[in-house]
Amino acid sequence: MFDFDLFVTALFGWPLAKGAMLTLVLSILVMAVSLVIGSFFGLAAGSKKKLPRWSIASYIWLFRGAPALLILLFIWNGLPQLSQVFRAAWFSPFVAAFLALTLIEVAYLTEILRSAFAAVGRGQREGAEALGFHRWQIFFLVTLPQAMRIAVPALVNEFISLLKSTSLATVISLKELMTVTQFAIATSFRFLEWYGAALVYYMAMVSVLTVVQIKVERRLSRGHR
Predict the structure, then answer these.
(1) Where in the numbering of this chain does the ABC transmembrane type-1 domain appear (predicted)?
(2) pLDDT at 123 over 90
(3) Under the phi-then-psi rule, with left for phi > 0, alpha for psi from -120 to 50, and beta for the rest, what region is 13?
(4) CB–CB of 63/106 below 8 Å?
(5) By the 8 A CB rule, do 173 and 76 touch?
């Protein structure tokens, strides 16, 4: 029988709230770093030079092809075996999850941004060159802003996927939302109430992101007219 009182206690209790905050912080940090790296990788992926193009293609092939769980376990269990540096106290489950998810996200965001950069009209870049803009000025002032406008829907969808992927970190005992939920179930043996409360948290975060996506798209479409 479903215990509604326990469900409410779980939903508004500090353990799940703290786990949800950790999930959100991890997702934001991974997305922010991946966006920066992915922007430069996306630019390099469209290069006419073979070495950077093939290097980026190999990176994407590896980290899009390997299961996220395998990469996470490789980082957490494998790196300490390779070097004592990763046996120190700083190498926590949070750091391991951050590294693993960033490696994966960079691969996906590189593809998204490469397509967005390619969609920016060449004529606009040539116009900026005619005005005397330098290469990096053209990138930051012309190409990047327009590419981001094009990529917004895909980027928000990718962030939602990332938010859910953080649940994989439960295998390395990172105390994110799902790990806290599993600990609570292990002591109470109440599955429906705790899973239900965790579901509410995930749906709330995804719903907020969806609303933000809609508003940003509307604002960008108005500004583009």
Answers:
(1) 20-213
(2) no
(3) beta
(4) yes
(5) no
Tokens in use for 181? 């939920």
Rounded to an integer, what distance in angstroms lies between the CA atom of residue 215 and that of residue 185?
38
Domain that holds residue 108: 4-224
Q: What is the pLDDT of residue 118?
A: 85
Please tell me the total count of domains within the chain.
1
pLDDT in tens, 144-169: 888 888 888 899 999 999 999 999 99
Among 109, 92, 76, which Cα is nearest to 22's? Answer: 92
pLDDT at 223 over 70: no
- CATH code: domain of residue 117: 1.10.3720.10
pLDDT per residue over 75-88, tens digit each?
999 999 999 999 99
Residue found by looking up tokens 């992101």 in the block = 209
Exposure b/e, 80-117, CB count within 10 A at least 16 = b: eeeeeebeeeebebbebbbbbbbbbbbbbbbbbbbbbb
Q: What is the pLDDT of residue 103?
A: 98
Closest to 42 measured CA to CA, from 156, 119, 94, 99: 119
Confidence of residue 215 (pLDDT cuts 50, 70, 90): confident
Q: Contact 186/1 with Cβ under 8 angstroms?
A: no
Report the half-sphere exposure of 219 (CA within 13 A, side-chain side).
7
